[in-house]
Amino acid sequence: MKSISIGILGLGTVGSGVVQILTEHAGLLENRVGAPLRIKRIAGRGEARIPLAPHLYTRDLMEVVRDPEIDIVVELIGGTDIARTACLEALNRGKHLVTANKALLAEHGLEIYRVAAANRVDLGFEASVCGAIPILRSVREGLVGNSIRSIVAIVNGTSNYILSQMTDSGGRYGEMLAEAQAQGYAEADPTLDVDGSDAAHKLQILSSVAFRGYVPFEAIYVEGIQGIDPADIGFARELNCTIKLLAIAKEEGGVLEVRVHPTLIPQSHPLASVGGIYNAVHIVGDSAGPLVFSGLGAGQKPAASSVVADIVEIAHNILFFRPSRSSLLPTNAIESVMRVKPMENVLCRYYLRVTALDSPGVLSAVSHVLAENGISIASMIQKGRAAQAAVPIVMLTHEAVESAMRRALETIDRLEVVAARTVCIRVEGMEE
Ligand SMILES: NC(=O)c1ccc[n+]([C@@H]2O[C@H](COP(=O)([O-])OP(=O)(O)OC[C@H]3O[C@@H](n4cnc5c(N)ncnc54)[C@H](OP(=O)(O)O)[C@@H]3O)[C@@H](O)[C@H]2O)c1
Question: Is 330 a pocket residue for ligand 1 (Cβ < 6 Å)?
């Protein structure tokens, strides 16, 4: 019986998880695939992190990539330099490729998809978005008959953990980040998680698959959670809302809006109760209607679970002589680049916290500036009087265009009665 030979690049968190699942579930997987899945070689950098037969392990990545017996190369080293070289080499050698590398695909996806298509090989990247949640497979296959209307998602477990802890304990951002690091939910350098870049990488991949066209990474608007203040979490609660870092993609008339930023959502929103390190995707298809997927978005076994799913799918294709299924790639991604709406033109509702002196005429000055820019106030919370001291004025606006809101904020922050920079958080999922 033919076996499917697998070469693994990187024996870190996910790599070790994949080896464990392929080993522990060897019998079950053989049954499901119809042939044994054989780990032929594994490349790492230092000492192997898990016990391995010595002949399996090498410190030379290219030895694995160039091994003529290997059918599927699994890239789990991360980064965009060596990983890119190794992946392109594997594809050009006719190997099928599985990768969990969101940074690589978000930044060099077009090149990788093109080389995979040119070599007629499969490319699986389920683990690159939302860890264990089979969201790419669900969108690509389960929702294939739909035109996707919108995606609103929590795709970064670290920032979701920090915001959830801030919400539950009232703690400050820095304290909750330190706690996330102590729990192993944030890296020593957490930048990519908290500044929104990791979420943007995932949104680039997910939206390219869902909207069937390549979304340029640079076109995604990105804001992180570093500026979130406990005061705003408190006011959000008073408004029956919560604050989440959301990845949002919406299509209208062939133009996409794609953005990642902290967002106020009502407590009744399906994503409001998704706490801790969990990820969730709320997606609306024109026929299917709204769906919610949730689960662990990172971690050794959750990510490895999705890597193994890709390996099994590709093994099936090899065994049943199915030629490379271009549907594994974001269909049309190679030819069609999506048009993206500039952020300035995006329309949404806003939460504003203006810090102003408690003197007569302040409210009318602020609302005058908003009105001049075509922005109307939907509701307001004004906190107690404090002679001479600044007090917060919190408002929810009706829908406004981003450029108008930016103009209004510049003017508001120049008013003499305004004592600090106005906090502005976009709102999602709140009926007008
Ligand atoms: N961790 C997750 O929960 C998760 C979830 C979804 C997707 N991903 C993605 O999966 C990929 C791997 O993540 P990870 O968390 O497993 O990272 P990791 O723990 O840092 O593992 C990467 C491994 O690759 C090895 N490596 C790096 N450069 C190498 C080279 N030139 N030659 C040989 N080995 C090399 C590293 O060796 P050293 O140990 O010597 O540095 C390390 O063992 C990344 O693209 C990540 O974005 C991770």
Answer: no
60 lines ligand 1 (CB under 6 A): no
Say how many Å lie between the CA of residue 218 and the centre of ligand 1: 24
Measured between alpha carbons, how far is 415 from 409 in angstroms, rounded to an integer?
A: 10
Q: What is the pLDDT of residues 271-306, one digit of tens each?
A: 999 999 999 999 999 999 999 999 999 999 999 999
Q: What's 279's DSSP letter?
A: E
Closest C-alpha residue for ligand 1 atom 41:
45
Amino acid, single-letter form, for residue 116: A
Out of 40, 95, 202, 250, which one is annotated catalytic?
202
Closest to 204 measured CA to CA, from 216, 192, 190: 216
The four Cα atoms 32, 35, 36, 40 give a dihedral, to 10 degrees, of -130
In the annotation, is 40 catalytic?
no
What are the tokens at 404?
A: 């108008």
The closest alpha carbon to 130, from 20, 277, 19, belongs to 277
Residue 384: per-residue pLDDT: 63
Residue 373, ligand 1, Cβ within 6 A: no
CA dihedral 253, 259, 261, 265 (to 10 degrees): 30
257 three-state secondary structure: strand
Q: Which atom of ligand 1 is closest in space to residue 298's alpha carbon? A: 3
**C-beta of 17 in contact with ligand 1 (< 6 A):** no
> In one letter, which amino acid is 21?
I
As a whole number of Å, the end-to-end CA separation of the chain is 62
Please indicate whether residue 303, judged by its CB atom, sits closer than 6 Å to ligand 1: yes
Q: Count the neighbouring beta carbons within 10 Å of the beta carbon of residue 34.
A: 13
Neighbouring CB atoms inside 10 A of 229's CB total 14
Residue 210: enclosing H or E segment and its boundaries?
helix 197-210
Task: Round to whole Å and give the CA distance between 77 and 8.
Answer: 9
Buried b (16+ CB within 10 A) or exposed e, 80-97: eeebbebbbbbbeeebbb
Give the residue whose CA is nearest to atom 15 of ligand 1: 13
pLDDT at 385: 63
Q: Ligand 1, residue 82: give the atom nearest the CA.
A: 31
Pairing of the two strands 123-124 and 96-99: parallel
List of the chain residues with pLDDT < 70 = 1, 323-335, 384-388
